[in-house]
Design a protein that fits this description.
By secondary structure, the protein is α/β, with parallel strands linked by helices. The protein has two domains: 119 residues, Up-down Bundle (Glutathione S-transferase Yfyf (Class Pi), Chain A, domain 2), CATH 1.20.1050.140; 152 residues, Rossmann fold (3-Layer(aba) Sandwich), CATH 3.40.50.11810. Helix content is 46%, strand content 11%. The protein contains 15 helices and ten strands. The longest helix has 17 residues. The radius of gyration is 21 Å and the shape is globular.
Length: 301
């Protein structure tokens, strides 16, 4: 049965992280999920708006939420961790602050109810995909991987309520279900440098370098992410990383949606992996068919 869910791609998935959008769309199509974009959506303001103007930083996400509510959406998928964080935070704050909500409603000319279920990519996978992956999986992701959540997907934990703040496990569980061996490491939620990717590549090189090196030193063959900002810093900024750590590391960075697409046997074009800066040269093992158990009927004596 076909399922429908609201979809907010955000600016990154329409531009610098279009491969993430491609892989999410491929994943949804494989499991008969229709992603319906929020009508007339706008930038959510991450990561600069809340540093410049508080009311603006609330109005931008509020307009997105109001448009989704007006369209009759109950759930919306927000694959970008930064967008997911901003939309969730604003809905939480406006939901408990009526005077601020009224002020923002006047600006966006809407009546925001703050009753949407906002899902990140891992929650989406668990709600709409995970129960059916085994039936469609063609290849085993038989690799040792480091699941990197970043700092925006799980914090603040008392607002997002997603997984454990310091040692999250949900992405690890998804990868294990695909056949991967996930490493236990202390850098799951360390900051990669976030929005400093353009302005301070030296800082990004140092912070992201520690993450990449730790994953490689522990034997990981790929880093799995769920954030376009994290992917950009760990993948695109590899020259700055290698300068900071003093060595060359070829470990690729893969979105969680791409990992599932790969296990489904999708092509590099379908997954968007061909757009990565660090080549993804990973060969997966063919999944063996489950042995059929035949129960022979015995004759009654």
């Amino acid at each position: 049965m076909q399922k429908k869910i609201g979809y907010y791609p955000g600016c990154s998935l329409e531009g610098s992280a279009r491969e993430y959008n491609e892989s999410v769309q491929t994943l949804a199509k494989a499991f008969d999920v229709t992603l319906e974009q929020v009508p007339d959506w706008n930038c959510c303001g991450a990561t600069a708006a809340h540093n410049l103007n508080k009311v603006l930083s609330f109005a931008l996400p509020a307009r997105i939420l109001a448009n989704a509510e007006k369209a009759g959406m109950e759930n919306i998928l927000v694959p970008c961790a930064a967008c997911y964080n901003r939309l969730s935070m604003v809905q939480h704050e406006l939901g408990k602050n009526e005077s601020l909500r009224n002020e923002v409603n006047a600006i966006i000319e809407a009546d925001l109810k703050c009753n949407l279920k906002i899902l990140n990519i891992i929650q989406f996978i668990q709600m709409f995909i995970s129960d059916f992956v085994g039936d469609k999986q063609q290849l085993l992701f038989n690799k040792k991987v480091a699941c990197y959540y970043g700092c925006l997907l799980v914090r603040p934990n008392d607002v997002l309520g997603f997984d454990r703040a310091e040692d999250p496990q949900m992405m690890d569980e998804v990868m294990k279900s695909l056949g991967a061996d996930t490493i236990d490491w202390p850098f799951k939620t360390e900051c990669c440098g976030a929005g400093l990717s353009v302005s301070r590549t030296d800082i990004v090189g140092n912070l992201s370098g520690r993450i990449v090196k730790e994953a490689a030193d522990r034997g990981a063959e790929a880093i799995i992410v769920a954030c376009p900002m994290c992917h950009s810093n760990l993948d695109m900024r590899r020259p700055a990383i290698e300068k900071a750590i003093g060595e060359k590391i070829d470990i690729p960075v893969i979105y969680i949606s791409q990992a599932i697409d790969m296990a489904l046997g999708k092509t590099q074009k379908e997954t968007g992996i061909n757009r990565h800066f660090v080549p993804v040269n990973i060969e997966l093992k063919k999944k063996e068919a489950e042995p059929q158990v035949v129960i022979e009927k015995t004759e009654e004596k």
